[in-house]
Records
---
Amino acid sequence: MTDRLHVATRKGLFELARSNGAWEIVNVRFLGDPVSAVLAEADGSLYAALDLGHFGAKLWHRDRAGEWREVAVPTFPPKPEDAGDDPHPWTLGKIWVLEPGGVPGRLWAGTMPGGLFRSDDAGESWSLNEALWRMPERRYWAGVAGGEQPGINSVLIDPRNPSDVRVGVSTAGVWASTDAGASWRNINRGMYAEYMPPEQRDNPIAQDVHRLARCAVHPEVVWCQHHNGVFRSQDAGANWHEITAIRPSKFGFAVAAHPRDPETAWFVPAVKDERRIPVDGKVVVARTRDSGRSFVVLKNGLPQHHAYDLVWRHALAVDETGERLAFGSTSGGLWVSEDGGDSWTMPEARLPPIAAVRFAP
């Protein structure tokens, strides 16, 4: 069980450690700067992506000795003349998610505007996945939040086969590659988009996938928090079925899958669309232990009166044991559970809005 937690916020990267049964901040880096993604590697190294607005996206690497240095960021090629009708920019907005690649030195980065990048030298250089970027279908990917660019929010690597990659796109569904990104296919069968006109409800490119999570020991089991529901796949995303038992609502952004139990997952439900607040002003976590047939609403230690904390896509995490969880909110709330979500405690800290949380391996 890990005793380190990394919290990416709008005003810096905070590292917490557990000591004598309590979690405390032990290190702060990039104070005042927005941190959009964080990745803690098994060798003890750490990556932090910064979203500096006018100054662009930056990527920093902390080695095993604790030394930080700036490394390369993903870059797009020049936009060719024959892509004039492409509605999306060919420039990096921000790094939205970082994931290990399953082989030494390999990293994957999902970005806005919908680019997938790979590094095979621990972030020293990056290459755009041209096959996904140049698909004709990509031009029809919609933007996030009704106007922003589409973004890749999830990158899942099969631990048995690093060439098997699944990506979740806001708002264009799930895409799969079995050849390390040389070719792609859309795998949204069973999903639906209730926000679309009836004739477009089952359009595979209209599916707004908020976040994907898979069971590490049983990677064929994948969970999806969709804009209008929760879905589960038992065949690595080839087919999906809706989970209708979730309470208190089916909307949310985050999902965490138990690393060893394929029947267990956690969600943070909310009221969707215009409001985007917790149901009835109560912060809760929904947990299933039977593949989604039933849910328990977990609230012990969470605020239950006039609480309006929203949890973003990457702000819910579970450690390798499946017992320790953490989540953070747009109001700077941070909660940790040591018992699979049955009870929660809040570290003594008032943090900036939280974009992502990550346990150290």
---
Amino acid sequence: MRRILVLFALALLALPGAAAAQRATLEISGATFRPYPIAVANPLATGDAVAPAEELQEALTFDLMASGLFDVVPRSAFLADPREPATADRIVWSRWSDVGAEGLVKVEVQPGPNGLSATFRLFDVATHREDLVKSYEGARADARRLAHRFADDLVRHFTGEPGVFSTRIAFVKRGATARDVWVADWDGRNAAPVSARGGGMALLPSWSPDGKSVLYTLYKRSAKYPNGKPELWRVDVDSGRTSLVLARGDQTMGGVYSPDGSKIAFTVTENTNSEIWVANADGSGAKKITNSPAIDTSPTWSPDGSKIAFVSDRHGTPQIFVMNADGSNVERLTFAGNYNQSPVWSPRGDEIVFTARDERLAFDVFVIKVADKSIRRITQGQGNNEGATWAPNGRMLLFTSDRNGKKELFVSSADGNVQHRIGVAGSEAMVQPAWGPLPQ
């Protein structure tokens, strides 16, 4: 669990006029969690800007809530006049302090040269000080993306770390007869298919480090393989161009890029035996790096590229193992439970998230620290939760849950205390999410 500490430059307070110059910062550390109370005021807009302004406020509010860093004051609790101006000298500060807000965001939205112009202002309620001003331009359809940009700026302003709200996610839409890879904004909006639809069943998407392409497993149908033979394919996300990367043995699947994008790790099955392989990113130079009669599968790279975690049942049940990237020095990581799968290494390098089946035969998300093998549980008692992936800053998790009756995407803070459903349009099941990198 992480605690948000509001640190003040106390030495500056002794200096004349220092109160106006100093500002609060947020340091994410410690054992006690306290989110920062913040209000996102009703946006100030008129005419054609009203509808996108409302969408912008909803997106910003969701971003801040889902981050786990902020305690967002509900709109229904506001006491201030909805038409209150966005300048410090005209804000009735007691109306915001009375609802518990320590930070206040004011948004002004108006038509702009590209369709929409939005100005965001962050105020400190106690000091009445304006701490941050950002203005963005975009099309009316980009209202949510403008909000994501400011949410990223807020996270960086308070913590010094990058926000993840301008990133994209990939996932599989699972219909009655089809499986396709889709890409969407991090909150599930602007979703579109990217895999070769109708050409087979697409699964297990994985982003390239530059965010330009997605590697996925395609069950390619043919006269010889009417049900499809798993191969590794790549799609350029912007152009939609797809290409075959690798096809070895009976099955080639579950490809993941190395952190520098130069290599991929994947699973090859030959005569019912599955092993971990590594190849260059273009599919050349493929080399087997495990050699066991057991099933070895689901590789994931450490963020420095020196190690690979994977799943093996070489001791009787599926467990998480770690080895050097060349296959040497294999070490068992999990010992609790008898069915552990789908590891994904944290971008921070200290933890691995995985799926485990508990004694009730329910699947849940767990995180293990690589150094001491201590485990914390992220989900419990809310249906089946599986296939988790990390946000690129290592502060959030994205996974599949059927807690509402069908498989949907949920986002969680890294400690599991804050969880929200991601709204993707459509009635199909959403599974196997992969969180894309920070924009470059």
